Amino acid sequence: MEHRASETPEDGDPEEDTATALQRLVELTASRVTPVRSLRDQYHLIRKLGSGSYGRVLLAQPHQGGPAVALKLLRRDLVLRSTFLREFCVGRCVSAHPGLLQTLAGPLQTPRYFAFAQEYAPCGDLSGMLQERGLPELLVKRVVAQLAGALDFLHSRGLVHADVKPDNVLVFDPVCSRVALGDLGLTRPEGSPTPAPPVPLPTAPPELCLLLPPDTLPLRPAVDSWGLGVLLFCAATACFPWDVALAPNPEFEAFASWVTTKPQPPRPPPPWDQFAPPALGVTERDLGFWGACPMRTGRREAQAWRSGQMRAMTAKVVGGRGQMGELP
User: Fold this and answer.
1) Among 153-157, 179-183, 206-210, 292-296, which stretch is predicted with the lowest mean pLDDT?
2) The pTM is what?
3) Where is the Protein kinase domain positioned along the sequence (predicted)?
4) Does 77 participate in catalysis according to the annotation?
């Protein structure tokens, strides 16, 4: 795993596997968390940017100067210290890539919260841009190309994001010249045991949706490719392709039948028939590949597959003006 700056903990053994390196980094960082009585000791807290079950994100201005930051707060009564440290360490290690939200040095803890700062995205998240209609074709291409590059970077370091969705894509300008994948709370080393999502999610792949507690599957980059395919559909249409990727959901059944039928019917089911062939090909490759590269694929085979998959997708998306064809 690579580090962005010299103030991050010392470099690890290049032969060390990702899980071991991350655990060692967490242990080193544990002693570097600064206790403060209140976040106001170091920041001027401006306003709330978002909230969830385990905490919230605030817009804050450091007292020492510099640009405003997004301050992520995790409730200490709900989040394990090790979970907080892992998310912070992963964020620091991958911050070198512009397609991943930069995590800043200096983790804190107050009597109620764990906290760390990240760069602030002025335009919010991608879901906020999809309230009424999908993005124009050029913006879809920009978003998907940047995210594909970010995921390839993560995967090359033995990590899987595991939560690719519009809410976790931060937007820095209205024309999506830069977007970044954030929220690394579920990011784990490849091969980590992964349970089913706690509730049905439209972004979760079928193999995870089929799991029943206490069963798990080893986490593979295929999860991120599936999520990126769903996100591409969302960016183009402003809606999810299905509520859950399982039968008897009619939208998923129609798509799965079209993908798996041999020979494949020439016309896809609605609303997929609104996509021009090049755009449909990108989406189908992400969503239709599941049986070809399941989560049980071996590490070496999966690594070779994912590198080619992400590069091919990026080339397809940015390969020229109008190459994706008209989007809905």
Assistant:
1) 292-296
2) 0.84
3) 43-328
4) no
d(CA 49, CA 10): 33
Secondary structure letter of residue 240 according to DSSP: -
- CB of 34 within 8 A of CB of 108? yes
- Dist CA 283 CA 277 (whole Å): 10
Which SS3 state, helix, strand or coil, does residue 233 take?
Answer: helix
Is residue 204 within 8 Å of residue 162, measured between CB atoms? no
Instruction: Name the nearest CA neighbour of 225 among 169, 156, 287, 170.
Output: 287
Which domains does the chain carry?
18-119 (3.30.200.20), 126-318 (1.10.510.10)
Per DSSP, the residues of 113-181 read EEEEEEE--TT-BGGGG-SSSPPPHHHHHHHHHHHHHHHHHHHHTTEE----SGGGEEESSTT-SSEEE
Binding site annotation covers 48?
no
Q: Hey, what are 220's tokens?
A: 């593979």
From the list 125, 152, 163, 286, the catalytic residue is 163
